Amino acid sequence: LLQMVENQMHTTNNEILRQGGVYALVGPTGVGKTTTVAKLAALGAQKYGADKVALITTDTYRIGAYEQLATYGRIIGCGVKQVKDANELAEVLYHLRNKRLVLIDTAGMSQRDLRLTEQLNTLMRNQRVDIRNYLVLSATAQINVLQETVRHFKKVQLSGCIFTKLDESLSLGEIISIAIQNRLPIGYLTNGQRVPEDIRVANAEKLVKKAEQLYLKRTKAQHSRRQAVASSTVGMYD
């Protein structure tokens, strides 16, 4: 069964860092997009040189969004730009055309936010540059929330997904199920706040093994609790 699950999963084989290009990270608020952008940028700078990496934010809604990304940019040594619409994005991307890796940090929005369509249209309307979109999802989210999020963000063509907060999740079955059901290749997994240490290239075999370990740990804990409850009630009704 585990082998079958593993065979149904697909990964992007470290596409972002291996190939370079222009990538936008999209997804709901609070999933860690900005930190993930910083992790990928830091690794990209190690591979290509910081002067060959650039960051863009389209987030004009959240207070401090640009400043947060700019701080990461200063630490990494790469440039950071902010754009407010599709025209500005096209212009900035043209100026950055010689960069090996450009990462776009988009505004975090609820899948029910009406501004989401506007945000996604900004990415879709750019015809000059091939922007590859990665959906960032939290491994701690409930499966119905994950499914609704994927459904809304599929308005843009998704090249893959990135799962965050694996260190906070008690189960990985939900994210594996979402990836398989929606035929979403998994690109990267993050498991902490450290930049760039806490990010891993997705590996189907390792992810399935980790999911199995968490499942066994959870069922063992549940069994222990049931035994404890049973022991505490012995003799209560004699």
UniProtKB/TrEMBL annotation:
GO annotations of cellular component type: plasma membrane
Residue ranges of domain SRP54-type proteins GTP-binding in the record: 20-213
Family: Belongs to the GTP-binding SRP family.
Single GO BP term: bacterial-type flagellum organization
Top-level taxonomy: unclassified sequences, metagenomes, ecological metagenomes
Keyword terms, alphabetized: Bacterial flagellum biogenesis, Bacterial flagellum protein export, Cell membrane, GTP-binding, Membrane, Nucleotide-binding, Protein transport, Transport
Matches recorded under SUPFAM superfamilies: P-loop containing nucleoside triphosphate hydrolases
Protein's recorded name: Flagellar biosynthesis protein FlhF
SMART domains reported for this sequence: AAA, SRP54
Chain ranges of the AAA+ ATPase domain: 19-190
GO molecular function: GTP binding; GTPase activity; signal recognition particle binding
Species in which this protein is naturally found: marine sediment metagenome
Function: Necessary for flagellar biosynthesis. May be involved in translocation of the flagellum.
Compartment(s): Cell membrane
InterPro entries in the cross-refs: AAA+_ATPase, FlhF__GTPase_dom, P-loop_NTPase, SRP54_GTPase_dom
Membrane topology qualifier: Peripheral membrane protein
